[in-house]
């Protein structure tokens, strides 16, 4: 349908994808990919995730302050002008990065880079905006997280597994102790040139590079906040929650750069079927009781990974049964898998990585995880690591993972949910 | 001559010229003292007409401390009014304390309202 509409002249141009990194003279990294789609996007990725916050909830507050008044335009002006261009502005917070994204029609990159960069270089952080707009958003985020036991389980799992740094929550505490000045101080500490990367899709790399040079010229050249390397601890914890399903997270963590072996383990454990309405072919899928669900969780970060299974069921007994099956599957993965199972797991993990890079959000995440370390940005390099996974490497990685201290989190009726030793951990 | 936040004002014109300011300032100080609002513990911005949406929005932007002090000054001055006499001399507002704390917020609100009106009535032409 789109091919019929696009004129012949445009079909000829912009055929090649470009995966390139350029470190600008201003110190901001730029990468661009051109897929010939009708809409473009620009993402300003800042190393300002919850890992770097000096106080609990500051990163969430900074994310919610995005697109409010800057020296160049007010909050209303930003929204109205973006509306007239037909653009969509979003800000998302991860544990390592804050992403400010603008999606727009081809040709409008100058305006939207200006909108994104003016927040980074000249945001006003006024008191009344914090009170009227930002504080309700922070509360709303925290309330949404508190009513979702899966989110609670993952947040607590990170805290137990990594303690500081990656253990910090993505959400603010229910009664935050910071004001607008604290957010301003945090912003000035993280918005430095070394900490910023600009990733564009369907934009011309040379043009974006030139715009970035001008836009971020006034950004601070100081070094960003220091963070210590992650250490994995592990442990057990449980919290009461009266909304949603009974939930348990059973997982392990590793330190070091994300490895294809751990991604393969997550794919091997995953009981989700490839065909809709089927139960799935893995042994774990057959052992899960009716009504319960088990999801494989794989969360890679720059220097650590968390992998495991999220078990949910309407009753605590269901969680116990599904949890025991999950632990069995984990132990079986560590003890040895057949070549056929390994091949299908590698294929599943490779496909997951490749299809994530197909969509805009996933592509930005794939590039974003590598752009700050200066490694090769192409998707092919990510996928080629899966070709090196063989049976011995896989069993070595799996057994060392499973023999470390597990991270077990239970969310729901704390009196009846199982303990780690009851599940066989 | 410039249209101020709520009224016409010549102040920006006078302040732009050093000689004019030198002549007008002593007259302005005498007038401020003679109007005797300082003898009732007020700051000038306490006297701004607040019964309109603009100043109400600006009042919402005061810090809790500023809002509390403003209410206290009003209560104290009401008491002085009941007694039909100004306050004791040590409670009069000093000229250096008489800071325009509300007018910057009012100016911002007026500018924001004007911007909203501009965006609501904008005519977009595509070339």
From TrEMBL, chain A:
Keywords carried by this UniProt record: Electron transport, Membrane, Mitochondrion, Mitochondrion inner membrane, Respiratory chain, Transit peptide, Transport
Cellular component, GO annotation: mitochondrial inner membrane
Residues of the Peptidase M16 N-terminal domain: 30-173
Domain of life: Eukaryota
Signal peptide residue numbers: none
Main location: mitochondrion
Cellular localisation: Mitochondrion inner membrane
Record-linked InterPro entries: Metalloenz_LuxS/M16 (IPR011249), MPP/UQCRC_Complex (IPR050361), Pept_M16_N (IPR011765)
Family assignment from sequence similarity: Belongs to the peptidase M16 family. UQCRC2/QCR2 subfamily.
Official protein name in the record: Cytochrome b-c1 complex subunit 2, mitochondrial
Automatic annotation (TrEMBL), chain B:
Subcellular location per the Swiss-Prot or TrEMBL entry: Mitochondrion inner membrane
Bilayer disposition of the protein: Peripheral membrane protein
Primary location recorded for the protein, binned into one broad class: mitochondrion
GO annotation, biological process: mitochondrial electron transport, ubiquinol to cytochrome c
Top-level taxon: Eukaryota
A family per Pfam: UCR_14kD
Protein name in the entry: Complex III subunit 7
Source organism (scientific name): Candolleomyces eurysporus
């Amino acid at each position: 349908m789109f091919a019929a509409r696009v004129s012949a002249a445009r079909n000829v141009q912009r055929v090649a994808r470009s995966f390139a990194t350029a470190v600008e003279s201003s110190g901001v990294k730029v990468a661009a990919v051109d897929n010939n789609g009708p809409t473009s996007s620009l993402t300003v990725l800042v190393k300002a995730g919850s890992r770097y916050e000096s106080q609990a909830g500051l990163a969430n507050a900074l994310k919610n302050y995005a697109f409010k008044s800057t020296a160049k335009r007010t909050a209303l002006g930003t929204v109205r002008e973006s509306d007239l261009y037909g653009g969509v502005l979003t800000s998302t917070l991860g544990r390592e990065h804050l992403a400010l994204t603008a999606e727009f029609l081809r040709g409008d990159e100058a305006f939207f880079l200006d909108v994104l960069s003016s927040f980074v270089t000249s945001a006003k952080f006024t008191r009344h905006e914090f009170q009227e707009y930002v504080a309700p958003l922070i509360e709303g985020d925290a309330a949404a997280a508190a009513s979702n036991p899966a989110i609670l389980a993952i947040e607590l799992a990170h805290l137990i597994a990594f303690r500081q740094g990656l253990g910090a929550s993505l959400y603010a505490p229910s009664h935050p102790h910071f004001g607008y000045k604290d957010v301003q101080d945090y912003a000035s500490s993280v918005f430095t040139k070394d900490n910023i990367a600009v990733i564009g899709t369907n934009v011309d790399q040379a043009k974006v590079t030139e715009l970035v040079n001008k836009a971020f010229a006034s950004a601070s050249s100081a070094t960003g906040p220091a963070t210590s390397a992650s250490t994995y601890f592990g442990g057990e914890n449980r919290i009461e929650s009266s909304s949603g399903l009974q939930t348990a997270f059973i997982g392990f963590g590793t330190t070091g750069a994300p490895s294809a072996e751990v991604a393969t383990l997550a794919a091997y454990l995953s009981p989700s079927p490839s065909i809709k309405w089927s139960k799935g072919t893995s042994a774990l899928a057959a052992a899960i009781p009716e009504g319960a669900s088990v999801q494989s969780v794989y969360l890679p970060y720059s220097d650590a990974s968390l992998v495991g299974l999220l078990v949910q069921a309407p009753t605590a007994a269901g969680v116990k049964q599904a949890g025991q099956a999950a632990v069995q599957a984990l132990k079986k993965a560590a003890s040895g898998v057949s070549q056929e199972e390994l091949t299908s797991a590698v294929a599943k993990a490779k496909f997951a990585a490749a299809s994530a890079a197909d969509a805009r959000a996933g592509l930005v995440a794939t590039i974003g995880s590598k752009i700050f370390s200066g490694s090769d940005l192409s998707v092919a390099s990510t996928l080629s690591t899966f070709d090196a996974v063989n049976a011995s490497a896989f069993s070595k990685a799996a057994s060392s993972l499973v023999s470390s201290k597990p991270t077990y989190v239970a969310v729901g009726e704390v009196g009846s949910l199982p303990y780690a030793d009851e599940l066989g951990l | 001559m410039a249209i101020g936040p709520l009224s016409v004002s010549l102040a920006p014109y006078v302040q732009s010229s050093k000689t004019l300011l030198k002549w007008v300032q002593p007259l302005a100080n005498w007038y401020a003292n003679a109007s005797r609002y300082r003898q009732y513990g007020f700051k000038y911005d306490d006297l701004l007409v607040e019964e309109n949406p603009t100043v109400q929005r600006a009042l919402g932007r005061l810090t809790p401390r500023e809002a509390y002090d403003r209410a206290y000054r009003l209560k104290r001055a009401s008491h002085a009014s009941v007694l039909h006499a100004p306050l004791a001399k040590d409670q009069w507002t000093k000229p250096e304390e008489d800071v325009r704390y509300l007018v910057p917020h009012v100016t911002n609100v007026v500018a924001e309202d004007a911007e909203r009106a501009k965006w609501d009535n904008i005519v977009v032409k595509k070339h």
